[in-house]
Design brief:
It is a single chain. By secondary structure, the chain is of the alpha/beta class. The protein has five helices and six strands. The strands form two sheets. A four-stranded parallel beta sheet has the order 4-1-5-6. Strand 5, helix 5 and strand 6 (126-127) form a beta-alpha-beta unit. The longest helix has 15 residues, at 78-92. 23% of the residues are buried.
C-alpha cells in the first residue's frame, strides 16, 4: 500500500513539474545600479540577484541562470551576439528546457532580438523583457 501511494505521488509530482527556463544575463539597464563616482548607471546586479528580486518567480518555473556578459546595452558587440546565439541554440535544444529569457540593456535590445530571431532556430520561446 505504501509503495502504491509513493508511486502515485511521484507520478503526480511529475505531472505538475514546473517548466525549466533559462535566464541568460548580458547586463544592461535591467541590472544597472547608480555609481556615484562615475555619475552613471553601470551593470552591477547579477542574474541571480534579478531572479531573487522578482517575488514568486521560482513558483512559476525551475530556473537556470547563465551569465553571458555584464555590459551596458550600448556596448553590445557582434562577438557577444554570436556567443549569446550559440548558447541559446544549445540550451533550447535540451528537451526539458521550455524556453529562455535574456536580460538586456535598452540601447540595443531591438537589434539583439532581431539578430536572435534570424539565427536561433527553435520552436521554444525566447524573450527579451523590456
Amino acid at each position: 500500500m505504501i509503495l502504491r501511494v509513493a508511486l502515485l505521488l511521484a507520478a503526480a509530482s511529475q505531472a505538475f513539474a514546473l517548466p525549466t527556463v533559462v535566464i541568460l544575463s548580458t547586463g544592461g539597464t535591467i541590472s544597472g545600479r547608480h555609481d556615484p563616482t562615475r555619475g552613471a548607471y553601470l551593470p552591477a546586479a547579477t542574474a541571480e540577484e534579478l531572479v531573487v528580486a522578482v517575488l514568486r518567480l521560482k513558483e512559476l518555473a525551475e530556473l537556470r541562470v547563465d551569465k553571458i556578459a555584464a555590459i551596458n546595452g550600448a556596448d553590445m558587440t557582434v562577438a557577444i551576439w554570436i556567443q549569446l546565439a550559440n548558447r541559446l541554440q544549445t540550451l533550447l535544444a535540451v528537451p526539458n528546457i521550455a524556453g529562455a529569457i535574456v536580460t538586456h540593456g535598452t540601447n540595443t535590445i531591438e537589434e539583439t532580438a532581431y539578430f536572435l530571431d534570424l539565427v536561433v532556430f527553435t520552436g521554444k520561446p525566447m524573450k527579451l523583457p523590456h
